[in-house]
Write a structure and sequence with these properties.
13 helices; 18 strands; 7-stranded mixed β-sheet; 340 residues; alpha/beta
Length: 340
């Protein structure tokens, strides 16, 4: 099969990879219908994470081809959406709703790589969710978004306790930040402030429910949020970038007693303990337990109540994956869909 491999930073190639096979009785083989490039894939592309012939990709939808003897919840022919973290969905941590920290957790990006024609998914019963039927073609991008960015944005909004009567501020206008705006809107937030400097992303933020746009960053961004909220700060703040500036901006924008949901993969972020102590806020974040939300998100997409697929603004065949990485790195694309 063909698949994407990052040989080293900036060097992305589509090469022949060995076809996956059932290894354990809990496995499933999925023939992928679509996959995509994630903002977190840019960390190794930019040399911030190591990459040495690394298989790439962790977002995926497709049709089950084969299952192991112990798989009961999905069967060959099912169209499925999978989480970017493998989970059994039965351990105590999974049952508490934190499948991304399952005792069998495994990052799809590091070991499986779904920017490929097929994938072996371990613990298929706990990782994959079948759709109600075969989806219309126009629903596939939205279902694919549920595999990571929609689920991650949703988790961020839930962690930030976005809801009726709340003012929500979203730091980051990439795919996850935009999906967090969608989620906050669906959860009933009264006001949603998108922090963005890019016209195309601002337009999409408004489409998903943003009521205000703030272009300022850092201390100026915090001051603007406080100005818009009577000097108090937002009830709910979502951090969807992962840099020192964005994280401190998010902390500063959260009102006393408010909630910060942080889902930006952070590198080099050093949070001064005294700043967090004095902020007096609730914080929750980390790798999103997408599997917790998949059934609900799939149904919302299936019923056409949400349209997260609009976050994909460039579609390329798998063979042109290197161009997709370059486009996202240069901010010419928000999120790239790869087709077969």
């Amino acid at each position: 099969m063909r698949g994407v491999v990052m040989y080293t930073a900036g060097d992305v190639r589509v090469v022949e990879r060995e076809d996956p096979k059932i290894i354990d009785p809990t496995d499933a083989i999925v023939k992928l219908t679509a996959t995509c490039i994630c903002g977190s894939d840019l960390w190794p592309y930019r040399g911030i994470e190591p990459a040495d012939h690394q298989v790439m990709g962790h977002e995926y939808v497709g049709v089950v081809e084969e299952v192991g003897a112990d798989v009961k919840n999905v069967k060959p022919g099912d169209f499925v959406v999978g989480s970017f973290v493998i989970s059994d969905n039965t351990c105590e941590i999974c049952q508490a709703g934190y499948q991304s920290k399952c005792v069998h957790a495994e990052f799809v990006s590091q070991t499986i790589g779904t920017q490929a024609e097929k994938a072996r998914i371990p613990y298929a019963d706990g990782t994959l969710v079948a759709t109600p039927g075969q989806p219309d073609e126009d629903l596939i991008p939205s279902l694919l978004a549920a595999s990571d960015v929609l689920g991650t944005g949703w988790y961020a909004a839930v962690a930030a306790e976005a809801g009726p009567g709340k003012t929500v501020a979203v730091v980051g206008d990439g795919a996850v930040g935009l999906m967090a705006i969608l989620a906050a809107k669906q959860l009933g937030a009264e006001r949603i402030i998108a922090m963005s400097r890019h016209k195309d992303r601002q337009d999409l933020a408004r489409f998903y429910g943003a009521t205000d746009i703030v272009e300022e960053r850092g201390d100026e961004g915090v001051a603007k949020i406080k100005e818009l909220t009577g000097g108090l700060g937002a009830h709910s703040v979502i951090e969807a970038v992962g840099t020192q500036e964005s994280f401190m901006q998010a902390v500063g924008a959260t009102r006393g007693g408010g909630h910060l949901g942080f889902v930006g993969v952070n590198y080099g972020v050093e949070l001064p303990g005294i700043d967090l102590f004095m902020a007096g806020i609730h914080t929750q974040g980390g790798p999103a337990p997408v599997r917790r939300f998949l059934p609900e998100l799939i149904q919302l997409v299936w019923d056409r109540k949400i349209d997260p697929g609009k976050v994909f603004d460039l579609t390329l065949p798998l063979e042109q994956a290197a161009e997709g990485y370059k486009a996202m790195d240069e901010r010419r694309a928000t999120k790239v869909l790869l087709t077969f």
